[in-house]
Amino acid sequence: LIEKAVNEFKNLDDKPIRIISHLDSDGLTAASIISKTLFRENKKFVLSVVKQLNENILNELSLENYNTIIFTDLGSGYLTLISKYLFNKKIFIFDHHNPENSKNYENIIQVNPHLSLIHEASNKISGAGIVYLFAKTLNQANMDLSYLALIGATGDIQNFENLNKEILDDAISQGKVLVK
Fold first, then answer.
1. Engineering a disulfide at 171: which of 10, 30, 81, 176 sits with its beta carbon 3.0 to 4.6 angstroms away?
2. Is this prediction's pTM over 0.85?
3. Which of 109, 132, 125, 111 is nearest to 32 (CA)?
4. H/E element, 105
5. Residue 110 neighbours by CB under 8 Å, 6+ apart
6. E strand or H helix at 129, and its extent?
7. What's the DSSP call for residue 99?
């Protein structure tokens, strides 16, 4: 899923990208990671942070002049509404919450551990962790952002096993975290 998202991202035009992220520790760190990643890729972007997605927000987004919208730490629970209002835009969803459905939408690239059949996926990696894995796959230089994903995981009260352990190892190797 991450490779697919990276390939789709590399084919984007140079127009500004709209980012919508969740208002909590995980969402804010996910927004930080994607913002820094886009900055490093010389992509212009506009970021908004919301408490929750709803039909009004999606309707407003449909009226904005962006071809690409990235949702971080939210979006998977609103696939039907996203496809209804944003059908003519390229959508990236980097989320760890349960998806509303498993339907494939032509314009939506969704990276979510639930789609990889990871048991109790919401507790295995945070939204920031998903964004970090995308950023790292896009460019290994983004490994220095690993510590931000750890903040997201900590905010979501996750353990540091499996995927989160890999991110922790990246942060240690980058000199961003010291484990005592």
1. 176
2. yes
3. 132
4. none
5. 1, 75, 76, 79, 92, 93, 95, 99
6. helix 127-138
7. P
